[in-house]
Amino acid sequence: MAEANKAGAAWVSWAVGLTLAAAGAARAADSAAPAVDPNVDAVVQAGRWSETVGAEGAQGTYRVVAASQGYEHVSTRVLAQWKADGGEDGQARIVHEAELVAPGLYSLDPPKLAASAAGVRVELRGVATYDSRVKVVCRFDLAPGGKTKVVRACGE
Prior knowledge:
Blueprint: H1 2-32, E1 40-53, E2 56-69, E3 75-84, E4 93-101, E5 106-108, E6 112-115, E7 120-128, E8 131-143, E9 147-152
Antiparallel strand pairs: 1-2, 2-3, 3-4, 5-7, 6-7, 7-8, 8-9
C-alpha cells in the first residue's frame, strides 16, 4: 500500500508540475502578444504598394485603422497607413500615415477596402454622431507615397 501511495504521489506531483509549466508557457505567450489600443475597433489590410525612397525601394500593404472614442456620443477616427514589409530585422514599419476621418462627427462601421487602379479604395459607412438618422458614406483612394484623395467626403 505504501508503494501505491508513493506512486500516486509521484504521479500527482508530475501532473501538478506539468500544469504549472503549461500555465507559465501560456503566460509567457500572452506577454509576447503585441499591445493593441483598447479603442481600436478594426484594422483592415488590402492591396500592395511600392515606391522608391532615396536610393532604397520600399513595398508593403495598405492598412486602415478605425478607433472609437467618446462616452454618450461615440465617434470614430480613421487612419490610413502605408505599412512597409519587414526588412532585414523582420520588423514591418509604418512609412506614411494620413487621417481620413477626424473624431467627433461620425460613428462608422469597419472599413471596406478594394483594389483600384491607383492602389486601394476605402469605403466607410455609418451615421452622424449626434443624429443616428443621418446616414453617412465616405470614399477615399490611397496611392503609393502616402497619397490620399477624397472621392466622397463624409458630409456629402
